[in-house]
Design brief:
Elements: H1 5-19, H2 21-41, E1 45-56, H3 58-61, H4 66-81, H5 83-95, H6 102-107, E2 109-114, E3 117-124, H7 127-174, H8 187-207, E4 215-222, E5 228-230, H9 234-255
Antiparallel strand pairs: 1-3, 1-4, 1-5, 2-3
Helix pairs in contact: 2-9, 5-7, 7-8
């Protein structure tokens, strides 16, 4: 069967593309190179990071599922990167003369977890600002973690005390005490103490911000001796330049007429 005009035209264009494949390679290379050179001139930012190493006290936590361990560790990440934390760090930065909002801080930072270690990364236009802001964040977050952990320990003690009061109150229902009620002379006194302890326990749990008393806060560590320059858009720029170069190559391949033999 003879080829139609459409099939013949497509075959010719395909042959032209194969003959001029080198045009695509050259244009793609030049596009990627141009984008890379442009990225070198673009504004470079500086990155700093710090990490928080945690653990679990198995003697008090007992046997935990993977989900339960994740919940304990994720509470640390929430404190490191919660809206309250961003607002507090931004306020501290403003006291240092930096024009920074919580939204700016969120857009220029990230937090990631590797097993039992949390790492916060921050990038800013100047190395001095990056280091100052990063150290402010690290110190405030570590202090906040320790405060929350102290409340978690207090809550754990209150929980045990409340359980003992509840058990004592339950015994009075079936057994008439010969004297006193677990150190209280009257039943209303015991009930009032239980109610007060329960409220105190609730307040301490809220102040612990989800931390468990079985969590271990090992250390906080500054990971960047000197802020390092980074370019977060360089990869995308080079990839875009490569794509534009290929497109330009295709246009050249089919736009330049072939020489007649």
């Amino acid at each position: 069967m003879p080829e139609t005009s459409t099939e013949l035209s497509l075959r010719r264009e395909g042959e032209r593309l194969l003959r001029r494949w080198w045009v695509l390679i050259v244009c793609a290379f030049l596009g990627a190179l141009g984008a890379y050179l442009y990225s070198l001139r673009a504004a470079t930012e500086y990155e700093v990071s710090f990490s928080v190493l945690t653990g679990i006290d198995q003697t008090t936590a007992g046997e935990l599922t993977q989900y339960e361990e994740d919940v304990m560790f994720e509470a640390v990440g929430y404190i490191l990167y919660s809206p309250d934390t961003l607002a507090q760090v931004a306020a501290l930065a403003q006291q240092q003369g930096m024009d920074l909002t919580p939204a700016d801080l969120r857009d220029s930072s990230s937090v990631e977890r590797r097993l039992n270690e949390w790492r916060v990364r921050l990038h800013r236009p100047s190395p001095q600002e990056a280091e100052t802001l990063g150290r402010l964040w690290m110190q405030w977050a570590w202090d906040e973690l320790r405060r929350a952990y102290a409340h978690a320990l207090t809550a754990d003690g209150l929980r045990r005390y409340a359980e003992s009061l509840t058990a004592c109150l339950a015994r009075t229902v079936t057994t008439e005490p010969a004297y006193g009620l677990c150190g209280f002379n009257r039943l209303p006194d015991l009930q009032a103490e239980l109610a007060q302890t329960s409220q105190h326990l609730l307040d301490e749990r809220l102040a612990s911000r989800g931390l468990s008393s079985s969590l271990l806060l090992h250390e906080v560590q500054w990971e960047t001796p000197v802020p390092r320059p980074v370019s977060y858009r360089r990869g995308w720029l080079v990839l875009s330049g490569l794509g534009l170069g290929l497109l330009a190559g295709l246009i050249l391949v089919f736009a330049i007429p072939e020489r007649k033999a």
